[in-house]
Amino acid sequence: MGDEPSALEVLLGAEEYRTQLPRFALLWSAPIAIGVTISVLAAGDHISSITRVVLIGTVLATGFLFVAVTHFLPRTDWIIAAALTGALLVPVCLAVVGPEFAIGATAISAVSAMGFVVLSRRGAFVVVGAMLVGLTVVVSTIAGYPRPITQVAAAATFSAASSIVMHNVIAEVQRLARELAAANARLGQYVAPQVAAAVGRASDLEPHRRLIAVWFCDLRGFTRFSAGAEPEDVVHVLGEYYAAVGDRATAAGATIGTFAGDGIHGYFGDPAPRTDADAAALDLALDLRPALDALCARWADRGFALGYGIGIAYGYATLGTVGYEGRRDYTALGSVVNLAARLCGEAASGEIILDARAHDGVKERVGARRRDVELKGFTDVVRAYVVEPAPRA
Q: Which of 79-88, 93-102, 112-121, 186-195 is modeled with the greatest confidence?
């Protein structure tokens, strides 16, 4: 049997599981420790006070050890070893206390099956199995136990029933987790991963203003190309183009906004704010340049005269969900978005154009020449900068 994750790890995820494990370990081990302690205290006079103190101290120390291991040494083998130590302590107490502990041991063996929540399935089977074997040995070999076979059968029945229930619960949780992961993967194909992650945090999607770097990229000559090309060629070209831009934008951490015909836009700095959004947008554009140059060269070999342009603007935008009950989109709104789109449209084939604010933040990193442009929707002349091509090797 493979060492599959516990139900708790499946539900919370690996990182949160490590954070919450000590708390759940305490919740699991505390009832067992309390049950053993009560049984020891309730035992007859045949047990000395020193023996009681030693047993109770050992039980509490073992519980503390288990919780400490989950906190400081959260490795699967160490956690199983600590849990196994506690499990074997139950039959030891049973042997010392005697038949008076039998009922408590039966109940504790059932509670121990909750280890399937905290431990991996392999670890839980080992711990519960070890406890049952220990109980069987003690009940079968020490005199005084009424109906020892019944005692063992009761403990085994409780543990088996609890184990089967927890086993089925874990299997169902894992099935739901796989379905959720598949659904999230499908969602990520239609929504930017950052936005998909923010859906579970409603406050992140509320309307807000934030400083972001917006980038637009579209193809030159696409209208003429699409009017005369075969539909299959149009779709193939767009597929190559979207893959080149989308893969690099996603790898760079950009939030991709929309695909509209031959245009793609996105931004850096939201939903998660970042102080280097302008530099990140420039780095993405510089990464796209050689990839798109190579694509355009391949298209030219096939007789498709296509180019590209990129525009970047840096400023405050309003971000949030827009739409209606049947359909909502998370989007950026404002003049910075319009400016990036207009700069993209102004760019000649192969050019990257920055607005003044974006240029001010990255001017030490890249050469650029100033170009004043008149843009639709902007009253004043816009100061822009065309990024110089990278020097040839």
A: 79-88
Report the distance separating Cα 265 and Cα 311, nearest Å.
9
Which amino acid is located at 4 in the chain? Answer: E
C-alpha closest to that of 70 among 160, 129, 141, 9: 9
Say if residue 2's pLDDT is above 50. no
The CA-based dihedral angle spanning residues 219, 221, 222, 223, taken in that order and rounded to the nearest 10 degrees: 130
> How much is the average pLDDT of 167-193?
70
The CA radius of gyration of the chain, in Å to the nearest whole number, is: 33
So what's the pLDDT on residue 276? 93
- Name the more confident of 341 and 321: 341
Q: Please give the pLDDT value at position 381.
A: 93
> What residues form DSSP beta bridges with 322?
329
Please report, for the chain, the start and end positions of each structural domain, with discontinuous segments joined by +.
Answer: 7-189, 204-387
DSSP codes joined into one string, 112-177: GGGHHHHS-HHHHHHHHHHHHHHHHHHHHHSTT-SSHHHHHHHHHHHHHHHHHHHHHHHHHHHHHH
Q: CB–CB of 365/354 below 8 Å?
A: no
Measure the CA–CA gap between 324 and 33, rounded to whole angstroms: 55
- Both tokens assigned to 45: 């006079």
Q: Which helix (H) or strand (E) holds 226?
A: helix 222-228
Mean pLDDT (the chain) is 80
Fold of the CATH domain 204-387: Alpha-Beta Plaits (3.30.70)
Element (H, E) at 12: helix 7-12
Q: At a CB cut-off of 8 Å and minimum separation 6, what does 226 contact?
A: 234
Residue 36 amino acid letter? V
In the chain the beta strands, taken as DSSP E runs, fall at 208-220, 255-260, 263-268, 307-324, 327-333, 351-355, 368-373, 382-387
Average pLDDT over residues 191-201: 59
Arithmetic mean of pLDDT, 249-273? 89
Single pTM value for the model: 0.57
Give the Cβ contact number of residue 18 at 10 Å.
14
* Spatial distance between the Cα atoms of 352 and 343, rounded to a whole number of angstroms: 9
Could you report how far apart the first and last alpha carbons of the chain are, in Å?
56
Instruction: Indicate the residue type of 272.
Output: A
pLDDT at residue 158 tops 50: yes
